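We now fix the convention by which a protein and its fold are recorded. The integers have meaning only within a learned vocabulary of local backbone shapes. The record below shows the convention in full.
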Amino acid sequence: MHYFLDPTFDPMTGILNEEESRHAIKALRISVGDSIEIGNGRGNRYQCAVRIIGKNQVILAVESKIEIPAPQFRFTIALAPTKNASRFEWFLEKATEMGVDDIIALESKRTERSRLNDGRLERIIISAAKQSQRSFLPVFHGSVPFSKITTESKNIRFIAHCDTNFARIALHEARPAAPENVLVLIGPEGDFTPGEIEAAYAAGFQGISLGSNRLRTETAGVYCAAIASTWR
């Protein structure tokens, strides 16, 4: 059954948004009577039958509704955007597929890219959520300065860095004993500055290591997403 993701879907009208309607008509060539599934990105999934197909609009008859429980905790990754925009976009796609709940573009002193196309990044997230059939859309918070992110009140807060002058534990050994909201900071290719690491530790963050190999920023983000996906 084809899965569509439409955050604006209203089961009372049954109208699929224009973008998803075009994809259903032109790419998937759906027909009247076909069964499809709609997710609204907030935990509701609708089993529907195609009722009307217009030029650029699909109207559905909702046959049943499933409410998916929200995750027990939210996992947030704050990652410094890479100089090469496509690498940050790749991270967004993979983090979405792996179940990350919140994504932040972290502005640190060594961040290589400060200007982002938020609209394009949102579309990438929606596309990846649809591909992986997620019931809950991740929230992209845009750019947030390092000084502000250290005040985030998550239950468990980590900062991933490569500076051996600071105590660190391996991320795979840092699994919470109980479901709690988790925030992980990942710096740019040049890593966080010693001053930033000190500030994070002073704010209650715990240092983590992602292994003996030095990872690219976007690879580190995907590694953290993969580890956290096993904590669900």
About this structure: The chain has a mean pLDDT of 94.
